Amino acid sequence: MRRGGILCAAVLAWAAFVPSVLAGETGLHHDIHLSLDPETRLLGAVDRVRILGGGRVDFVLDPSLTVSAIRVDGRDVSPSRRGGRWSFDLGLTGAHDVMVDYGGTIALLDPSKPGAAGRRAFASAAGSYLPASVSWFPRFRNGALTYRVEIRVPATQRAIVPGRLVEENSATDGWRAVYASEAPAWGIVVMVGPYRVESRDAGGITLKTYFHPEIAELSGDYLSSTAGYIERYAESIGPYPYSAFATVSGPLPVGLGYPGLTYMGTRVLRLPFIRHTSLGHEVLHNWWGNGIWVDYDSGNWAEGLTTFMADYAFAEDRGPAAAREMRLGWLRNYAALPTARDHAVVAFTAKVHDASQVVGYNKVAFFFHMLRDRLGAQAFADGIGLFWRRFRFRIAGWEEMRQVFEEVGGGDLTGFFEQWLRRPGAPTLRLADADVFREGEHHGVSFTLSQGAPVYRLALPVAVTTSVGEERFRVMLDGPTSQHRLMTRGRPLALAVDPEFDVFRRLGAEETSPILRDVTLDANAVTVVLPDDEAMGEVARGLAKRLLDTPPTFTPADAAARSSHPLLIIGIADRVRTFLAAK
Prior knowledge:
Elements: H1 5-14, E1 29-37, E2 42-53, E3 56-60, E4 65-72, E5 75-77, E6 80-82, E7 85-89, E8 94-105, H2 116-119, E9 128-130, E10 146-153, E11 158-160, E12 164-171, E13 174-180, E14 190-193, E15 196-202, E16 205-211, H3 219-236, E17 244-250, E18 255-258, E19 261-265, H4 266-270, H5 278-284, E20 293-294, H6 302-318, H7 320-336, H8 354-375, H9 377-391, E21 395-396, H10 398-410, H11 414-421, E22 429-439, E23 442-451, E24 458-466, E25 469-477, E26 481-488, E27 492-497, H12 517-520, E28 526-530, H13 534-547, H14 557-560, E29 567-571, H15 573-582
Parallel strand pairs: 1-10, 16-17, 17-19, 20-21, 28-29
Antiparallel strand pairs: 1-2, 2-8, 3-7, 4-5, 4-8, 6-7, 9-14, 10-13, 11-14, 12-13, 15-16, 18-19, 22-23, 23-26, 24-25, 24-27
C-alpha cells in the first residue's frame, strides 16, 4: 500500500516501539508461509526472519493471533506476551535465524463498517483482507522491509499480495501462489476472494484483474484503461517501477492503493466514471507514494501531486472550462472549511476526514497548479522527471522537491514554498478605486489591490475587457496594498482580478454560492430527521453519520426551526417541503 492514506496511520502506530537490535540496521526480510480458509476464517502462518542483534527483542502481532512457537537458530525459546507485544531472547549478539509459528481466527466481515477495510483484518467467502495496519505478521521494527509470501487458500479462492508473482498452481485440495516484493515496502497486504482472473501484456508489464464473478465482464475495459494510464505516466514521469499492475475487487465500498495494484469495492468498480477517474489516480500512486516514499515528518505531498497529475489533468483534458470549474470547486470547498479546522499543508499526513482532504488533496493540487504557472510547463515537466529519477524508491519530502524545482530553473523558491506550505489560511484580496483614464490617444485603467495579514507575495492575473476585446496582464501584490496603472489598446469596460481562479485564495461573497460542505464540515451543524417510520429514521441517521465530518447532533424539528446553526434536513421530499415552509 502507498505510504499514505490508511498505511500512514499504521506507520505512526509502529513507531511506538523500537526493538533491541543493533542500531543502523536496515529493514528485515520476511519469508512467510501462510494458509487462510475464508469459510472458517482460520489463519495459520510461519514467518522466518534473519535478525542481527542480541539480548531481548520484541515484535508486535495482532492480539487476535497467538504464537505457538518461536525458534532462534533452531532452538525453542519461551516468549513473554503483553497484549499484542511479544518478547524473547535472541542470545549473544550476532546474526540469528528467527522462526515464528502463529495463527488464529480472523474477524468476520462487517459490511456495516465500510472503514474497516483500512483498519482491521476480515475474512469471509465473499472476500478476505489482511492489511499491514493490524500487524497480521510479526512486526519487528518500524521501517521498510522486503518479503516472500507463499499463500494457500481453498480451490475456489484466489489470493494476491503486492509484488512479483513467482509461481502459482491449483489442485483439487487448494490453490497456492508465491509472491515476492520488488522493492522495499512499508508493510505486507493480502487479499483473497472468489476471483476470476484476467490478464494482458502491455509492453512487458503484466496487467491483471481479480474480479468477483458478478463484475467479471468489466475486466477487458479495466485492462485497456490501465494500459493507457501506465503509458501516459511513463511518458510524462519515467518508466513504470513494477513488473505488473492488478485491479482487485472487494466486498466493501473503498478504494485503496498499493505497490502494483489497487483494491476497490465491487460496487465502486461498477460505477461508470471510476475507470476514467479513480483508476488513473491509483495507477499514478505507483510513482507518487509507492515509487517515491513520503517523508511524513515534513508532510504528505503525494496525495496532492497525484490529484494534480490525475484528477485535475483529466479535467484539463476536457478543456479549460472543466479545469476552471475544478479549481473553483476546490476554492469553494476551502471557503466552507471552518477556520478552526484549517491547518498548514506540512501538517497533513493522511486523509482522516473531509476537512483534511480539503487541505492535503485540494490545496496541495492547487499549489502544483501555481508552481507550474510560475515555472512554465516545460520546466515543471523537467522537475517532475528529475524528482522521479533522483528519489525512486527513496524517501523525499517538500525540501527535496523544492531543491529539484530550483535546479531545473525555478530560481529561489524558498518564499513560494514557505507561504503556501507552512502557513494555514489563504490570502483575501480586495479590489478598490478602479477607474478609467486616457493619456492622449491611449486608454488605461487604474486600481488598488490589498490583502490582509499575513502578507503573501502574489503574481495576479488581471483581465480587462475593452472596446476591442479582452486584454490580459499580470500584476504583483507583495505587501498590504499596491496601486496599478495598465495601458490598454481599447477603452476599458470591465476589470477582473484572477478571473479564472488561478491563485489559491479566499473567495469573495459574489464568487461562490452555498454548497453542501458548508454544512458537512461545520462542527456546529445540527441534523433534523423527518422519517415516515422508524426504519427510515434509522437509515436517515446512518446517512447523517456518513455525510457529516464530525459526529452528528440530532435535534427535534421544532427546536431546529429556531436554531441559527447550519442545518441538515433528511427526509422524503414532502416532509422536507412542509418543514421548510413552516420555518
